[in-house]
Amino acid sequence: VEVEWLSVKGACGISYPVAVGPGLLEDAFPGFVTEKGFGRVAVVSNDTVAPLYGEALVERIPGSFLISVPDGEQYKTPATIRMIYDGLLANGADRSTPVVVLGGGVIGDMAGFAAATFMRGVPLVQAPTSLLAMVDASIGGKVGFDLPQGKNLVGAFKDPLAVFADIETLDTLPPEEMRTGMSEVIKAGLIADPPLLDMLVPDDRKRMHYRDRERLGRIIRRAMAVKIGVVEQDRLEGGIRAYLNLGHTFAHALELVTDFRVTHGEAVAVGLVAAARLSERLSLCDGALVGRVESVVQSLRPADGPVGHPIPESGPEDLWAAMQHDKKWRNGRPRFVLLRATGEPVVVEDIPRDAVLEVLERIGEGFATPSGWT
Ligand SMILES: NC(=O)c1ccc[n+]([C@@H]2O[C@H](COP(=O)([O-])OP(=O)(O)OC[C@H]3O[C@@H](n4cnc5c(N)ncnc54)[C@H](O)[C@@H]3O)[C@@H](O)[C@H]2O)c1
Ligand SMILES: [Zn+2]
Predict the structure, then answer these.
(1) Cα–Cα distance between 208 and 69 in angstroms, integer?
(2) What is the pLDDT of residue 373?
(3) 140 in ligand 1 pocket by Cβ < 6 Å?
(4) Residue 108 CA, ligand 1 centroid: distance in Å
(5) In order along the chain (374 residues), what is the average pLDDT of each group of 10 residues?
(6) Is 320 helix (H, G, I), strand (E, B) or coil?
(7) Rg, C-alpha atoms of the chain
(8) Ligand whose nearest atom lies closest to the CA of 271
(9) Do residues 177 and 370 make contact, with C-beta atoms less than 8 angstroms apart?
(10) Atom of ligand 1 nearest to the CA of 112
(11) Contact at 8 Å (CB) between 294 and 273?
């Protein structure tokens, strides 16, 4: 399986490379870091990923040291950012010391923020190890952390020098995390690459295992290309970057009303179907599109997963109320990314409440939900 190189046009027209393929952490990535002639190099990871890949990586990069922080979205806080600053200082980092991020989107966002701010900014290199981080979080330069008041409330834009997505690391990624990443891949296909939707079914749906590495690499590359296309056209999120929010207004509401017992991937999968149904309800598209989205989402679930209504303890009104907190709604005006067709997203404002509630009443109907949130 070949390593492929993509390129992203970032701030001030400066481009950075994105490598995708197997074995990058062994070879190309340490090579790149060494070639750049940095003195010290900080590898920032978490307590799950550091023992798997971080310790071996610092051995391959001369002059590097490892900073490992606790694993989990609940640690995406100012206190953890502080731990990263402390680790940098304790190891003699200065303005020229690059931060190499090794892990999923949580550590990517946090260590990226630390790189954007430590001594007013040091170089950043991304080595995403979760599928979601590869196809979504590591590209586009958004970094930040959570506050008790809400997710991602503080952040910055910080482009990396390069992104190295070693697909071999996905061998150890838990199946539910693969599923979460695949929901974002479906989103990418629906936004701008409909043929991608035909390539996604894993060989083992329960374990989310892709025997054919070549195909997995191709899936990831194409999903990355969609994200790259969107952020290149709208780096600072003024317009079409909103397309990346497809399905997410529904997803965030589901996550909120279930206290995050629903994984992000499950919520996005259901949210993508809901977005298609709302599109049909508003006559933006026909029923065939809804069927298409349902079948793609369904084709990634295990055949023997439970089928049922996802939120027995709360109704459509609770979901509607949860949606009012959507950061991307301007002045509380309902704003959804919908579909005219696969590959044709559109932002629609001021959708009648009744239309949304009709969709919410049937949300999750007819789905296998493997993470057991029924
Ligand atoms: N900056 C952006 O543009 C952007 C976009 C989307 C999401 N995000 C952020 O990304 C975060 C979600 O990212 P995520 O889904 O990667 O979650 P995550 O970083 O929590 O990773 C999921 C889990 O998998 C583990 N893991 C990662 N790689 C592994 C590997 N190779 N083997 C074994 N375990 C591994 C992690 O330690 C973690 O336990 C959220 O905080 C979200 O806000 C940012
Ligand atoms: Zn998402």
Answers:
(1) 27
(2) 45
(3) yes
(4) 8
(5) 91 94 95 90 98 97 96 97 98 97 98 98 98 97 94 95 98 94 98 97 92 96 97 80 94 88 88 96 96 91 60 79 78 88 95 94 71 46
(6) helix
(7) 20
(8) 2
(9) no
(10) 1
(11) yes
Nearest residue by C-alpha to atom 44 in ligand 1:
137
Angle at 179 between CA 262 and CA 72, to 5 degrees: 60
Helical segments of the chain, H only: 28-35, 49, 55-60, 78-90, 105-117, 131-132, 175-192, 213-233, 248-257, 264-281, 287-299, 316-323, 353-361
User: Which string of DSSP letters, residue by residue, matches 72-122?
Assistant: SGGG-SHHHHHHHHHHHHHTT--TTPPEEEEESHHHHHHHHHHHHHGGG--
pLDDT recorded at residue 244: 95
Q: Tell me the two tokens of residue 343.
A: 């590959």
Contact 146, 152 (CB under 8 A): yes
Residue type for position 253? A
What's this model's pTM, rounded to 2 decimal places?
0.95
The pLDDT of residue 235 = 73
* Cα–Cα nearest to 343, from 200, 229, 253, 234: 229
Length of the chain (residues): 374
Q: For 85, list phi and psi in degrees, rounded to 5.
A: -55, -45
